[in-house]
Amino acid sequence: MNPKQITVAGLVVIVLALAAQHNHNTSHKVSMIILPKVQGAIDESVTESNVKSTVCVGGYTRNVRPPTSYTTKLKIQQLHDLGYFDQDPTHYEEDHLISLSLGGHPTDPDNLWPEPWSQAHASDRVEFILYTNLCSIGSITLKQAQDKIKQWKSTKG
């Protein structure tokens, strides 16, 4: 990159950062996608052979979900460590890259990341579709569901 290109790239970053701050301070929506910087981790106790007695059982995620005291502390640390511009923890959900309902590890920091709330709501819908296909319809395997959610969040947030 030549100096002019670097300057333009720097200005783009500043404009995007200001737009994100503007989004927080006003009712206008600015669509900014933040991709996860974690790899995801699975819960080894959830397998293809036991999905019907683990993740597909009502209340499963409630029983394995880590306490907010753990996720809030991790979120604040990750916002700093991962270099987020906006480090206000109230702007994010500490989300599981591989959701608990798809056999994601509940507490492994490599499966948790600060996801902006707007993205979290969108990914919740995708997680539910995959969960339904895994548990109710049976049209995908556990591994396929895990791979699909990782791929979706890694490309769309």
Describe the protein.
The two termini are 28 Å apart. It is built from five helices and two strands; from the N terminus they run H-H-H-E-E-H-H. The chain has two domains: 1-32; 34-156, no CATH class. The protein is mainly alpha-helical and 157 residues long. It has a two-stranded antiparallel sheet with strand order 1-2. It has helices at 3-25, 60-64, 68-81, 117-137, 142-156; strands at residues 92-96, 112-116.
Spatial order of the strands in the main sheet?
1-2
Number of strands: 2
Overall average pLDDT? 84
Count of DSSP-assigned helices: 5
* Overall 3D shape: globular
* Secondary-structure element order, N to C: HHHEEHH
Work out the radius of gyration: 18 Å
Pairing-aware structural class of the strands and helices?
A: mainly alpha
Number of domains: 2
Q: Describe the main β-sheet briefly.
A: 2 strands, antiparallel
Question: Which spans have pLDDT < 50 for at least 5 consecutive residues?
Answer: 2-31
User: Approximately what portion of the residues adopt beta-strand conformation?
Assistant: 5-15%
Distance between the termini: 28 Å
